[in-house]
Design brief:
The chain is an all-alpha fold. The protein has helices spanning 6-9, 12-26, 33-40, 44-48, 54-69, 78-95, 99-109, 115-128, 137-162, 168-180, 188-192, 194-199, 202-217. Mean pLDDT is 86; it is low at 1-8.
Length: 224
């Protein structure tokens, strides 16, 4: 039996895994075929055998992370499963800051690709199991998907702005204090929620948002 070539020995899965590692470390700018060949200790030809260009590599890395996030064990009611899937996606975007812009790009550029249909299907199946009219399924699923992308993406963006050396609690306290100092006649609402900003937890806030959407869908029924 003839020995395998290096291109055959190096799997597509290992290439994607290494790409995710590079993206996590340095963002999209840090992912090049040169850095990838160095990470894998191989030549570019072995990588091109599996992935034709950087765009395809980014798509594959995005699909890999999302596939893992959607394999969450979400047993329970449809509402419980929606919460579990939403939180799993939220945490995936939090762990991989490069993921949010890639999801936005895929959602707008390639709605028929591998990622967008999987997310809509995972959430849509649970929405269709709720006691709501079938004519609202698309709108309800879209509301949840866009909320997950928006809230998780904003959280990831905040983390990038703060950077690793900034204490988040201190940042929130400073923001809340600044809101409390605003003109009460011009900014009564911001002043009223300053304490919430100071003490809030990102995950709890995210799940509360999902609760509000689910309550709207199901006529106000809430999680027990």
């Amino acid at each position: 039996m003839a020995p395998r070539t290096r291109a055959e020995a190096l799997s597509r899965e290992r290439i994607v895994e290494a790409a995710v590692e590079l993206l996590d470390a340095d963002g999209e700018r840090g992912l090049t075929f040169r850095t990838l060949t160095e990470r894998l200790a191989t030549g570019p030809g072995a990588i091109y055998w599996h992935v034709p260009n950087k765009g395809a590599l980014l798509d594959a890395a995005t699909a890999s992370v999302i596939a893992t996030a959607l394999t969450v064990d979400a047993g329970g009611s449809p509402q419980d499963e929606i919460r579990a899937i939403g939180l799993s996606l939220f945490e995936a975007i939090e762990r991989h800051p490069w993921l949010s812009p890639q999801l936005a790009l895929q959602l707008s550029r390639s709605p028929r690709g591998s990622v967008t249909p999987r997310i809509f299907e995972a959430i849509g199946q649970r929405v269709s199991a709720l006691c709501i009219q079938e004519t609202t399924w698309f709108t309800a699923t879209s509301a949840l998907v866009h909320y997950v992308f928006g809230a998780a993406g904003q959280n990831a963006a905040n983390s990038r702005v703060l950077g690793p050396g900034v204490d988040r609690a201190e940042f929130l306290r400073a923001a809340a204090n600044a809101w409390e100092d605003l003109d009460p006649a011009e900014f009564p609402f911001l002043r009223s929620i300053a304490d919430e900003v100071r003490e809030h937890d990102d995950r709890e806030q995210f799940l509360t948002g999902i609760e509000l959407i689910l309550a709207g869908m199901t006529g106000g029924s809430r999680r027990p």
